[in-house]
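Bug: token stream looks shifted between consecutive jobs. Job 1:
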Amino acid sequence: MIIVNVKEGESLDRALKRFKKKFEKTGVLRELRSRQAYEKKSVTRRTQLKKAIYKQSLNQDIV
């Protein structure tokens, strides 16, 4: 359960923004989307490998 303490004088928009940030960090929505359709472990591994290769290529371009 996510708890956001609203400080005195704090606007509701700011408290909502903090809640959204905490919610995003927990990764609940990401996990929910991944559970909607089953994905084989080999496919998951392959996509992670592709992402890693892509990130590594970006880092090499910077250096």
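Job 2, same session, no restart:
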Amino acid sequence: MEVIYGLIPGMLVLGLVAVGVLFWAARSGQFEDLDGDGQRILMDDDVQDRDPRRFPDAED
């Protein structure tokens, strides 16, 4: 029973730290562009710059 006197304040402090980190991340812009990275990985922007040494049959 005595251990609960240490666990409850410890859990409250840990919960407040987690809420603080969540608010910090929201204010610093971590959640601004959630779909950007998922879309950028699918786009082929670098296909236009084909290196003839790497692709010998590519036309200029």
